[in-house]
């Protein structure tokens, strides 16, 4: 699947089929307020998680890093202090437009995660934050990340996950539906999009399942770290 002939759909929300044109169209609509909503919905924890991503990547000057599904580049900007060469790639042209205005120092590239517009073994590290669950073929995108990553290069994924404690998991589902979604409708005019976000979180793989997929895509030394009991998790691995 390439970007040739690609056109974002004029939709307020995507479905769990995660058609790229619907995903792009939905994110185009929420682009301007997306970063604000992330801060609100994560209750300020986002900076802690991004710091953990930066530490897990362990990159520095002279290394090239791909931030996939980078959106407006907020996750990429969190890596600027590493001194590495950063490339932010996203499917949504609306998100990229906002990102270029906010972060002119970052290189933005429009691209489809299932057919990345980069050469083989062209990055020292790759990362994706809260984006992989929005891509329709998890195994394919992991294979693409392995393709563009140099042997021994690092993969770091920050994503919503599944709580380990069943009682807490039930409470978290209540929070998502009865607290987070109403808050999203209060602060944003795009309630439909946040209904999709909620559904995609609940439908996503657990930590072990994602780890198996990562290993099967050509990675080794797969490990993960839970935050807030598994509300989110960071997976890291090395390309074989």
Notable characteristics:
alpha/beta, 240 residues, 9 helices, 7 strands, Rossmann fold, 7-stranded mixed β-sheet
Please describe what this structure looks like:
- The protein has one domain: Rossmann fold, CATH 3.40.50.150.
- With 240 residues, it is an alpha/beta fold.
- Residues 1-5 have low confidence and may be disordered.
- It has helices at 20-30, 34-41, 46-57, 74-77, 93-102, 138-148, 166-187, 191-202, 207-216; strands at 64-68, 85-90, 107-110, 123-129, 149-160, 219-227, 232-239.
- A hairpin with a 4-residue loop joins strand 6 (219-227) and strand 7.
- Its EC number is 2.1.1.163.
- GO terms for molecular function: demethylmenaquinone methyltransferase activity.
- Belongs to the class I-like SAM-binding methyltransferase superfamily. MenG/UbiE family.
- Pfam families: Ubie_methyltran.
- It catalyses: a 2-demethylmenaquinol + S-adenosyl-L-methionine = a menaquinol + S-adenosyl-L-homocysteine + H(+).
